[in-house]
Design brief:
It is a single chain. The protein has six helices and 17 strands. Strands 1, 2, 3, 4, 5, 6 and 17 form a seven-stranded mixed sheet that branches. Strands 8-15-9-10-11 form a five-stranded parallel sheet. Strands 12-13-14 form a three-stranded antiparallel sheet, with no helix packed on it. It is of the alpha/beta class. The protein has two domains: 183 residues, FAD/NAD(P)-binding domain; 105 residues, FAD/NAD(P)-binding domain. α1 runs parallel beside α6.
Length: 319
Protein backbone atom coordinates (compact mmCIF):
# COMPACT_ATOMS: atom_id res chain seq x y z
CA UNK A 1 0.00 0.00 0.00
CA UNK A 2 1.29 3.44 -0.91
CA UNK A 3 0.88 6.41 1.44
CA UNK A 4 1.72 10.09 1.32
CA UNK A 5 2.67 10.18 5.01
CA UNK A 6 2.89 7.54 7.68
CA UNK A 7 3.05 8.58 11.33
CA UNK A 8 4.63 6.06 13.69
CA UNK A 9 3.37 6.49 17.24
CA UNK A 10 0.14 7.56 18.90
CA UNK A 11 1.11 9.91 21.72
CA UNK A 12 0.46 13.68 21.65
CA UNK A 13 3.17 14.22 19.01
CA UNK A 14 1.80 11.60 16.65
CA UNK A 15 -1.84 12.56 17.18
CA UNK A 16 -1.12 16.25 16.56
CA UNK A 17 0.87 15.38 13.44
CA UNK A 18 -2.13 13.33 12.27
CA UNK A 19 -4.47 16.27 12.84
CA UNK A 20 -2.33 18.76 10.93
CA UNK A 21 -1.51 16.49 8.01
CA UNK A 22 -5.18 15.51 7.76
CA UNK A 23 -6.23 19.17 7.62
CA UNK A 24 -3.68 19.59 4.81
CA UNK A 25 -5.57 16.91 2.83
CA UNK A 26 -2.63 14.50 2.97
CA UNK A 27 -4.78 11.54 4.08
CA UNK A 28 -2.27 10.46 6.77
CA UNK A 29 -2.02 6.97 8.17
CA UNK A 30 -1.03 6.68 11.84
CA UNK A 31 0.28 3.32 13.04
CA UNK A 32 -0.30 3.32 16.76
CA UNK A 33 2.27 0.95 18.21
CA UNK A 34 1.51 -1.59 20.92
CA UNK A 35 0.14 0.98 23.40
CA UNK A 36 -2.18 3.70 22.12
CA UNK A 37 -1.65 7.16 23.56
CA UNK A 38 1.97 7.03 24.70
CA UNK A 39 3.10 7.84 28.25
CA UNK A 40 0.29 10.28 28.95
CA UNK A 41 -2.24 7.47 28.53
CA UNK A 42 -0.78 6.00 31.74
CA UNK A 43 -1.65 9.14 33.70
CA UNK A 44 -4.91 8.98 35.60
CA UNK A 45 -5.37 12.75 35.91
CA UNK A 46 -3.98 15.45 33.57
CA UNK A 47 -4.42 18.99 34.90
CA UNK A 48 -1.65 20.86 33.08
CA UNK A 49 -2.81 20.42 29.48
CA UNK A 50 -4.33 23.70 28.20
CA UNK A 51 -8.06 23.78 27.64
CA UNK A 52 -9.18 21.47 30.44
CA UNK A 53 -9.60 23.57 33.60
CA UNK A 54 -11.24 20.69 35.46
CA UNK A 55 -8.59 18.23 34.34
CA UNK A 56 -8.93 15.14 32.18
CA UNK A 57 -7.61 11.60 32.27
CA UNK A 58 -4.78 10.64 29.96
CA UNK A 59 -6.83 8.06 28.05
CA UNK A 60 -9.68 10.57 27.58
CA UNK A 61 -7.30 13.22 26.28
CA UNK A 62 -5.69 10.97 23.70
CA UNK A 63 -9.08 9.62 22.60
CA UNK A 64 -10.32 13.18 22.00
CA UNK A 65 -7.17 13.97 20.02
CA UNK A 66 -7.74 10.85 17.94
CA UNK A 67 -11.37 11.79 17.26
CA UNK A 68 -10.35 15.28 16.20
CA UNK A 69 -7.77 13.92 13.74
CA UNK A 70 -10.28 11.38 12.39
CA UNK A 71 -12.78 14.19 11.82
CA UNK A 72 -10.45 15.60 9.17
CA UNK A 73 -9.63 12.28 7.55
CA UNK A 74 -6.73 10.77 9.47
CA UNK A 75 -6.68 6.98 9.44
CA UNK A 76 -5.49 4.75 12.29
CA UNK A 77 -4.08 1.25 12.34
CA UNK A 78 -3.59 -0.45 15.71
CA UNK A 79 -0.41 -2.22 14.73
CA UNK A 80 3.31 -2.05 15.46
CA UNK A 81 5.96 -1.14 12.89
CA UNK A 82 8.55 -3.91 13.04
CA UNK A 83 10.85 -3.02 10.14
CA UNK A 84 11.72 0.07 8.11
CA UNK A 85 13.82 0.64 5.04
CA UNK A 86 14.83 4.27 4.68
CA UNK A 87 17.61 3.72 2.15
CA UNK A 88 15.25 4.06 -0.80
CA UNK A 89 12.31 6.25 -1.72
CA UNK A 90 9.42 5.71 -1.31
CA UNK A 91 10.27 4.41 2.14
CA UNK A 92 9.24 0.86 3.04
CA UNK A 93 7.62 -0.20 6.33
CA UNK A 94 6.45 -3.56 7.63
CA UNK A 95 4.26 -4.29 10.65
CA UNK A 96 3.81 -7.13 13.10
CA UNK A 97 0.46 -7.92 11.48
CA UNK A 98 2.21 -8.54 8.17
CA UNK A 99 1.23 -5.32 6.40
CA UNK A 100 3.65 -3.70 3.93
CA UNK A 101 3.56 0.01 3.19
CA UNK A 102 5.37 2.43 0.93
CA UNK A 103 5.46 6.04 2.12
CA UNK A 104 6.60 9.28 0.52
CA UNK A 105 7.25 10.71 4.00
CA UNK A 106 7.42 9.44 7.57
CA UNK A 107 6.96 11.19 10.91
CA UNK A 108 8.57 9.29 13.77
CA UNK A 109 6.69 9.92 17.02
CA UNK A 110 7.59 6.78 18.91
CA UNK A 111 8.33 8.66 22.15
CA UNK A 112 10.37 7.48 25.10
CA UNK A 113 9.62 5.12 27.93
CA UNK A 114 10.55 5.50 31.59
CA UNK A 115 12.93 2.94 32.90
CA UNK A 116 10.96 0.80 35.29
CA UNK A 117 12.11 -0.83 38.49
CA UNK A 118 10.91 -4.23 37.37
CA UNK A 119 9.69 -5.22 40.83
CA UNK A 120 6.45 -6.88 41.96
CA UNK A 121 3.55 -4.46 42.27
CA UNK A 122 4.97 -1.80 39.97
CA UNK A 123 2.85 -2.47 36.90
CA UNK A 124 -0.29 -3.30 38.88
CA UNK A 125 -0.12 0.00 40.76
CA UNK A 126 0.96 2.25 37.91
CA UNK A 127 -1.56 5.10 37.84
CA UNK A 128 -2.69 4.18 41.35
CA UNK A 129 0.22 5.60 43.27
CA UNK A 130 3.13 4.64 41.03
CA UNK A 131 4.08 7.46 38.68
CA UNK A 132 6.90 8.54 36.40
CA UNK A 133 5.94 12.22 36.17
CA UNK A 134 5.81 14.53 39.19
CA UNK A 135 4.65 17.47 37.08
CA UNK A 136 1.70 15.39 35.90
CA UNK A 137 0.69 13.75 39.16
CA UNK A 138 2.27 15.59 42.09
CA UNK A 139 -0.86 17.54 42.97
CA UNK A 140 -2.74 14.36 43.82
CA UNK A 141 -0.37 13.56 46.69
CA UNK A 142 -1.08 16.63 48.76
CA UNK A 143 -0.44 15.90 52.42
CA UNK A 144 0.81 12.36 51.76
CA UNK A 145 4.12 10.58 52.24
CA UNK A 146 5.81 9.60 49.01
CA UNK A 147 9.05 8.03 47.83
CA UNK A 148 11.22 9.16 44.92
CA UNK A 149 13.49 6.46 43.54
CA UNK A 150 16.79 7.68 42.10
CA UNK A 151 19.79 9.87 42.82
CA UNK A 152 20.33 11.96 39.71
CA UNK A 153 19.24 15.43 38.67
CA UNK A 154 15.72 14.35 37.70
CA UNK A 155 15.12 12.56 41.01
CA UNK A 156 16.13 15.59 43.06
CA UNK A 157 14.42 18.14 40.82
CA UNK A 158 11.18 16.21 40.97
CA UNK A 159 11.61 15.47 44.67
CA UNK A 160 11.94 19.19 45.38
CA UNK A 161 8.89 19.86 43.24
CA UNK A 162 6.89 17.25 45.14
CA UNK A 163 7.59 18.95 48.48
CA UNK A 164 5.06 21.57 47.37
CA UNK A 165 2.37 18.96 47.92
CA UNK A 166 3.61 16.07 50.01
CA UNK A 167 3.95 15.85 53.76
CA UNK A 168 7.23 13.93 53.42
CA UNK A 169 9.39 12.98 50.43
CA UNK A 170 11.81 10.08 50.85
CA UNK A 171 14.65 9.98 48.34
CA UNK A 172 15.58 6.30 48.00
CA UNK A 173 19.00 5.75 46.45
CA UNK A 174 21.06 2.63 45.97
CA UNK A 175 24.28 4.40 46.97
CA UNK A 176 25.43 6.54 49.89
CA UNK A 177 26.04 9.54 47.68
CA UNK A 178 24.02 11.29 44.98
CA UNK A 179 24.85 11.81 41.31
CA UNK A 180 22.88 15.05 41.06
CA UNK A 181 24.42 18.50 40.68
CA UNK A 182 25.79 19.94 43.93
CA UNK A 183 23.28 22.81 43.96
CA UNK A 184 20.39 20.35 43.79
CA UNK A 185 21.90 18.25 46.54
CA UNK A 186 22.24 21.33 48.72
CA UNK A 187 18.65 22.36 48.16
CA UNK A 188 17.39 18.87 48.91
CA UNK A 189 19.42 18.55 52.10
CA UNK A 190 18.13 21.90 53.32
CA UNK A 191 14.49 21.02 52.66
CA UNK A 192 12.81 19.90 55.87
CA UNK A 193 10.31 17.75 53.97
CA UNK A 194 12.99 15.58 52.35
CA UNK A 195 14.58 12.57 54.02
CA UNK A 196 17.14 10.26 52.41
CA UNK A 197 17.12 6.49 52.46
CA UNK A 198 20.65 5.44 51.52
CA UNK A 199 22.12 2.22 50.13
CA UNK A 200 18.66 0.86 49.39
CA UNK A 201 16.82 -0.68 46.45
CA UNK A 202 13.13 -1.43 46.06
CA UNK A 203 12.19 -5.08 46.57
CA UNK A 204 8.47 -4.64 45.87
CA UNK A 205 5.63 -2.12 45.94
CA UNK A 206 2.75 -3.09 48.18
CA UNK A 207 -0.91 -2.14 48.19
CA UNK A 208 -4.30 -3.47 47.19
CA UNK A 209 -6.08 -0.65 45.38
CA UNK A 210 -3.31 1.93 45.76
CA UNK A 211 0.25 2.15 47.04
CA UNK A 212 0.58 1.50 50.77
CA UNK A 213 4.27 0.77 51.30
CA UNK A 214 7.62 -0.10 49.79
CA UNK A 215 9.70 -3.14 50.56
CA UNK A 216 13.36 -2.11 50.64
CA UNK A 217 16.64 -4.01 50.75
CA UNK A 218 19.87 -2.47 52.05
CA UNK A 219 22.58 -3.28 49.49
CA UNK A 220 25.35 -3.14 52.13
CA UNK A 221 23.83 -5.21 54.90
CA UNK A 222 21.23 -7.24 53.00
CA UNK A 223 18.63 -6.26 55.58
CA UNK A 224 14.98 -5.62 54.67
CA UNK A 225 12.74 -2.76 55.71
CA UNK A 226 9.25 -1.45 55.05
CA UNK A 227 8.60 2.19 54.19
CA UNK A 228 5.00 3.40 54.56
CA UNK A 229 4.21 5.68 51.61
CA UNK A 230 1.17 6.44 49.48
CA UNK A 231 3.04 7.29 46.30
CA UNK A 232 6.15 6.19 44.40
CA UNK A 233 7.83 8.31 41.73
CA UNK A 234 10.45 6.47 39.69
CA UNK A 235 13.36 8.46 38.23
CA UNK A 236 16.00 6.02 37.15
CA UNK A 237 16.07 7.34 33.59
CA UNK A 238 14.21 7.17 30.28
CA UNK A 239 15.05 5.47 27.05
CA UNK A 240 13.84 6.59 23.61
CA UNK A 241 11.84 4.10 21.58
CA UNK A 242 14.19 4.31 18.61
CA UNK A 243 15.77 0.86 18.45
CA UNK A 244 13.92 0.27 15.17
CA UNK A 245 15.89 3.04 13.44
CA UNK A 246 19.43 2.14 14.51
CA UNK A 247 21.83 2.06 11.60
CA UNK A 248 19.54 4.17 9.43
CA UNK A 249 19.17 7.45 11.32
CA UNK A 250 21.62 9.46 13.41
CA UNK A 251 21.21 9.26 17.18
CA UNK A 252 23.06 10.57 20.20
CA UNK A 253 24.70 8.24 22.71
CA UNK A 254 21.43 7.73 24.55
CA UNK A 255 19.54 6.82 21.39
CA UNK A 256 17.58 10.04 20.87
CA UNK A 257 17.17 10.90 17.20
CA UNK A 258 19.25 13.77 15.85
CA UNK A 259 17.19 16.40 14.04
CA UNK A 260 17.74 19.97 12.88
CA UNK A 261 15.64 22.98 13.89
CA UNK A 262 12.98 21.91 11.39
CA UNK A 263 12.77 18.41 12.88
CA UNK A 264 14.36 16.86 9.80
CA UNK A 265 16.53 13.78 10.22
CA UNK A 266 19.51 13.24 7.93
CA UNK A 267 17.21 11.60 5.37
CA UNK A 268 14.92 14.01 3.46
CA UNK A 269 11.30 13.10 4.09
CA UNK A 270 11.92 11.51 7.51
CA UNK A 271 10.94 13.74 10.42
CA UNK A 272 10.90 13.16 14.18
CA UNK A 273 8.55 14.69 16.73
CA UNK A 274 8.30 14.42 20.49
CA UNK A 275 10.32 12.40 22.94
CA UNK A 276 11.96 10.27 20.26
CA UNK A 277 14.27 13.29 19.93
CA UNK A 278 13.33 15.58 22.86
CA UNK A 279 15.34 14.55 25.90
CA UNK A 280 14.87 17.86 27.74
CA UNK A 281 11.25 18.93 28.23
CA UNK A 282 9.30 15.66 28.20
CA UNK A 283 5.84 17.23 28.45
CA UNK A 284 2.73 16.35 26.47
CA UNK A 285 2.13 19.94 25.36
CA UNK A 286 5.71 20.21 24.08
CA UNK A 287 5.37 16.94 22.17
CA UNK A 288 2.13 18.17 20.63
CA UNK A 289 3.95 21.30 19.45
CA UNK A 290 6.67 19.20 17.87
CA UNK A 291 3.97 17.12 16.15
CA UNK A 292 2.55 20.30 14.63
CA UNK A 293 5.98 21.40 13.42
CA UNK A 294 6.78 18.01 11.88
CA UNK A 295 3.45 17.95 10.08
CA UNK A 296 3.98 21.41 8.59
CA UNK A 297 7.45 20.43 7.42
CA UNK A 298 6.07 17.23 5.93
CA UNK A 299 3.51 19.21 3.96
CA UNK A 300 6.32 21.36 2.53
CA UNK A 301 8.38 18.30 1.67
CA UNK A 302 5.51 16.67 -0.22
CA UNK A 303 4.77 19.90 -2.06
CA UNK A 304 8.40 20.03 -3.18
CA UNK A 305 8.15 16.42 -4.37
CA UNK A 306 5.17 17.34 -6.52
CA UNK A 307 7.14 20.19 -8.08
CA UNK A 308 9.93 17.72 -8.85
CA UNK A 309 7.64 15.60 -10.98
CA UNK A 310 5.83 13.26 -8.58
CA UNK A 311 2.14 12.72 -9.42
CA UNK A 312 0.04 15.55 -7.97
CA UNK A 313 -2.12 14.97 -4.95
CA UNK A 314 -5.85 14.73 -5.33
CA UNK A 315 -8.17 16.52 -2.85
CA UNK A 316 -8.15 13.48 -0.54
CA UNK A 317 -4.38 13.38 -0.54
CA UNK A 318 -3.98 10.36 -2.83
CA UNK A 319 -2.01 10.54 -6.10
Amino acid sequence: MSENVIIIGSGPAGLTAALYTARANLDPLLISGNEFGGQIALTNEVENYPGFPEGITGPELTELMKQQAEKFGARFEFDHVSKVEFGKHPFALETENGEHYDAKSVIIATGASPRRLGVPGELDLTGRGVSYCATCDGFFFRGKDIAVIGGGDSALQEGLFLTRFANKVYIVHRRAELRAQPILQERARENARIDFVWDSVVRDIQGKDSVESLGLVNVRTGGSAELAVQGVFVYIGHYPNTELFKGQLDMNQEGYLQVNERLQTKIPGIFAAGEAHDHIFKQAIVSAGFGCMAAMETEKFLADLEHQGYPPLSPNGKP
